[in-house]
Design a protein that fits this description.
- This protein has 163 residues and is α/β, with parallel strands linked by helices.
- 42% of the residues lie in helices and 23% in strands.
- The chain has helices at residues 14-27, 52-79, 112-123, 137-143, 146-153, and strands at 2-9, 34-40, 87-94, 106-107, 125-131, 158-162.
- The chain has a 6-stranded parallel β-sheet, sandwiched between helices.
Length: 163
């Protein structure tokens, strides 16, 4: 695997932006790096909203925040010296989205870590970079975390967890 081929999984968190900046500090103004920004859409659960319309608004807000972050992450990498032609973006829409678009590839909710590792295998990425989400220790113990699952399940690649 080519360690200079980097899959950078992001959400709209501060730790995700720290991961972007970490990658930029290493890949910026260096030759041969390719960075793929990957965002797996996780929409809010329907049952926390009083009605369908409120849920759709919440989903749209979440989607807009994630897509805006993806654009900012790309801009930041380019600002830090990663050639724009070497930065690509992929936004994976939830298969359970209330919107009528039909995505050729969608997130089936099998778990964000699983979907990130699938993307790593399919794309032949030698490095996976994620921001540590910052879940409480009790929550991590009970449910795990994306970064923890990736660290324990990744094969044939290097994993960087940025906090």
């Amino acid at each position: 695997m080519n360690f200079k081929k980097i899959l950078l999984a992001v959400d709209a968190s501060e730790n995700a932006m720290r991961a972007v900046e970490y990658v930029g500090s290493i890949a910026g103004n260096s030759d041969g790096f390719e960075v793929r920004l990957l965002c797996i859409e996780r929409l809010p659960h329907r049952d926390i909203f009083p009605d369908e319309e409120s849920w759709k608004e919440g989903c749209e807000t979440t989607r807009n925040v994630l897509k805006e972050f993806l654009g900012k992450a790309r801009e930041r990498l380019v600002e830090m010296g990663v050639p724009g032609a070497m930065v690509t973006e992929k936004y994976v829409t939830s298969c359970f989205s209330p919107f009528s678009e039909t995505a050729p590839v969608c997130s089936r909710g099998t778990g964000v870590a699983h979907e990130i590792l699938d993307a790593q295998k399919q794309g032949g990425y030698g490095t996976v970079v994620i921001g540590r989400r910052g879940v409480a220790k009790a929550e991590e113990f009970l449910f795990g975390s994306v970064s923890n699952k990736i660290v324990h399940s990744a094969k044939d690649c290097t994993v960087w967890v940025v906090s």
